[in-house]
Every structure is written in structure tokens, then in C-alpha cells.
Amino acid sequence: MRAIMTPREAARYLGLHIITIYRLVKAGSIPGFKIGGQWRFKKDLLDEWIKGKIRINSQPPPINEKSDE
């Protein structure tokens, strides 16, 4: 896999639809950058993004404590 990927390559790498890639990058949810008006993705940044998602999803949900107010 190349170090710099097109949206189509990033979608294939992540197992997502290309429209989902565009939606995520436009929302700032996934790391990407534009070169000459075209989106590009660094593989190592995508790997870090995935690791962050794994950490977030593996944390136990917060405990809802009711206060006696």
C-alpha cells in the first residue's frame, strides 16, 4: 500500500464506501489533506486514526450516578 493514498485507495484500505470517506474528511473526522484541490490520505495517519477509534470503542461506558440534589 502506498504511503499517500487517493480517496478510492483509502476507502479500499479502510473497507468503507468512497462517499463515506468524503463525508468523514469534509466533517474533519478522518485525517486528510488537499493537494491541487484533490483529497489525499497518509497511511500512517489513517493507522493512528484507527488506533484512536479502537481505544475509544474499547473504553467502558461512563457510569451514570444520580445526585441527591
Protein traits:
elongated; Multidrug-efflux Transporter Regulator, Chain: A, Domain 2; 3 helices; three-stranded antiparallel β-sheet; alpha+beta; 69 residues
Topology diagram in text:
Layout: E1 4-5, H1 7-14, H2 18-26, E2 33-35, E3 38-42, H3 43-58
Helix pairs in contact: 1-2
Protein model, in words:
The chain is an alpha+beta fold. The protein has a single domain, classed as Orthogonal Bundle (Multidrug-efflux Transporter Regulator, Chain: A, Domain 2), CATH 1.10.1660. It has three helices and three strands; from the N terminus they run βααββα. The chain has helices at 7-14, 18-26, 43-58, and strands at residues 4-5, 33-35, 38-42. It has a three-stranded antiparallel sheet with strand order 1-3-2. β2 and β3 (38-42) form a beta hairpin. α1 (7-14) packs across α2 (18-26). The longest helix is centred in the last third of the chain and has 16 residues, at 43-58. The radius of gyration is 16 Å and the shape is elongated. The mean pLDDT is 89.
